[in-house]
Specification:
Layout: H1 20-24, E1 33-38, E2 41-47, H2 53-64, E3 72-77, E4 91-95, H3 113-116, E5 124-127, E6 139-142, E7 163-170, H4 172-179, E8 188-201
Antiparallel strand pairs: 1-2, 1-8, 2-7, 3-4, 3-8, 4-6, 5-6, 5-7
């Protein structure tokens, strides 16, 4: 997200050129799924390759290379206490061991909800970012409906919103438990919740093969 008040919000990415095929190739296979095991429990995501191919293939690239296995959920934002921002949100944010400003791969093009038709409802996964086209590996999961994260919303001052690209089909209770875990006054989870593994469930879509 934008870098709200004291701490940057969500950031993530991968080369638009390298993923151009993802953006234009229709894939008839079922929507890909990813199981994330954490110290707090298991979550399963169904990704929307059809509507958000760039973000989906980018995320799968990090999963396939097992980059999230040494990462963590490191940030929580709770609407009830996020009163310093006029557009409070309910999310948990994760990243690889490189952190939210992950420079290990180039950033990706922002897939705006205006264009994808997706929305930041409870359980949705979305890419963290600072400016447009700056997302890399960091992602966040929405725990309550939060329309201010959509295109035209005011959570990020640029009004471009964030790139939703899938949703939880299992483990929303786990995400909400992580959100309510101990945190400091900078919204950092104390301690961070480690990700022990992130794996594709089933086949990797042809459009997203490395």
């Amino acid at each position: 997200m934008p870098r709200p008040a004291a701490k940057p919000f969500l950031i993530l990415a991968a080369s638009a050129v390298a993923l151009a095929g993802c953006a234009t190739t229709a894939d008839p296979s079922p929507q890909p799924r990813v199981a994330i095991e954490t110290e707090a429990g298991r979550m399963v995501l169904e990704l929307d390759l059809a509507h958000a191919p760039i973000s989906t293939c980018n995320f799968l690239g990090y999963v396939i290379r097992r980059d999230y296995d040494t990462g963590s959920f490191f940030r929580t934002v709770v609407r009830a206490t996020n009163t310093a921002n006029p557009n409070p949100i309910d999310v948990i944010q994760a990243a690889t061991e490189h952190g939210s400003d992950d420079a290990s791969r180039p950033p990706i093009v922002l897939e705006r909800t205006r264009d994808t038709g997706l929305r930041h409802t409870a359980g949705v996964i979305s890419m963290a970012r600072d400016g447009p086209d700056s997302a890399t590996s960091s992602f966040f999961i929405v725990t309550q409906d939060t329309p201010s994260l959509d295109f035209g919303g005011a959570r990020n001052p640029d009004g471009q919103g964030f790139a939703a690209f899938g949703h939880l089909i299992e483990g929303l209770d786990v995400a909400r438990a992580i959100q309510m875990s101990p945190a400091d006054d900078q919204e950092a989870l104390t301690p961070a919740i480690k990700i022990t593994s992130a794996r594709v469930v089933g086949a990797i879509p042809a459009a997203c093969h490395p």
